[in-house]
Amino acid sequence: xxxxxxxxxxxxxxxxxxxxxxxxxxxxxxxxxxxxxxxxxxxxxxxxxxxxxxxxxxxxxxxxxxxxxxxxxxxxxxxxxxxxxxxxxxxxxxxxxxxxxxxxxxxxxxxxxxxxxxxxxxxxxxxxxxxxxxxxxxxxxxxxxxxxxxxxxxxxxxxxxxxxxxxxxxxxxxxxxxxxxxxxxxxxxxxxxxxxxxxxxxxxxxxxxxxxxxxxxxxxxxxxxxxxxxxxxxxxxxxxxxxxxxxxxxxxxxxxxxxxxxxxxxxxxxxxxxxxxxxxxxxxxxxxxxxxxxxxxxxxxxxxxxxxxxxxxxxxxxxxxxxxxxxxxxxxxxxxxxxxxxxxxxxxxxxxxxxxxxxxxxxxxxxxxxxxxxxxxxxxxxxxxxxxxxxxxxxxxxxxxxxxxxxxxxxxxxxxxxxxxxxxxxx
Length: 427
Ligand code: NDP
Hints:
Layout: H1 24-48, H2 59-64, H3 71-90, E1 94-97, E2 108-111, H4 113-130, H5 135-140, H6 142-164, H7 177-183, E3 190-191, E4 194-195, H8 196-224, H9 229-247, H10 256-259, H11 265-278, H12 281-289, H13 295-324, E5 337-338, E6 346-347, H14 351-354, H15 358-372, H16 383-407, H17 409-417
Antiparallel strand pairs: 1-2, 3-4, 5-6
The structure holds NADPH dihydro-nicotinamide-adenine-dinucleotide phosphate.
């Protein structure tokens, strides 16, 4: 059960933060407009233009990109949200402590995402098999559902921006309304004792992505009468990735989203729209364009996917285990480590001796596989890797700068020993 331990706030309650990320207020305004526009455009490309890029030529073209919400879409969204909320509150799971905030507080989280996801995925599959849920009918509501989720993100961001102002010392704002709307004004807003950010990232963002990865193949079967190899490859690989996320759900608690970013429009939109709708563009494209993928190529892509998965998972585990027990063998040998003035050691064995972020290489390999499975008929299904690669390249640079500040000269010694950033012997 999420709970805040009662420790005394340490910092100035209402300290204003500088509006210095993403190009400041103008950048925040631009992104608030661009993110929904891109999402509507991509939906339109797959749903209205056969999966191809297209150029709006009139105002009517632009307005056609934004479907009107329907009561059916609202019902689908409402039921899914309610099921996830109930499973979040009632499913059993171990309780872990989150990272301490800058005010010395540590919330508790019940880690029950795997069970919640398996139950909701099971209910969805049972609904489809029994005929209660028609994937074709859900598909017909895809556009209205997208509009509804965009509206929900806007309203939720406004509510947390206003509500955040009453969170006293948890409040982190700049005073610029546009920037604060985009970046949020509070780190971990709660409903009762439940952390909204954790719930919406894990259960709505990742959980809905998983649900769509099940619904889209089912819709293809219902609409076309057969399941294409491309659809099978993309959805199975993505479902594996999502399952892996829920198996290691507690690692989310140490990620930047949870410990650093306020819950503003950027994250609301990411969880409600960007992840479920845009990360499944490959399957939406396959449904529209039905590209051919030979079995031999499919097997090759699946092998590449799991090679990427192995690098991703093994490298992340190596670091986690090293942090818990620095003497634990890596790849069967005692680890080579480096002492630092900061007190924490750095690992120089295994993946962390080959490159400073081999975990990103694994993630990127999987992203590329999911796109390649769609062939070369359109750039639209490549959206995921085209968005993800710059994101991780930038993240590596930001993490490097952060480590440079944290470790100083020790980091320079480490980077001399491990010169490769992401791809050993290449980059
Ligand atoms: P990492 O797990 O790569 O962690 C970076 C931190 O690890 C550093 O800040 C440093 O922190 C520590 N560290 C760096 N080098 C060493 C070393 N040699 N030995 C020990 N500790 C070291 O960061 P991310 O959170 O960016 O990535 C985690 C995973 O999440 C990745 O696999 C990534 O691909 C994935 N990811 C996925 C996203 C998605 O949208 N699908 C988005 C972002 C990430 P310290 O020393 O303080 O411990």
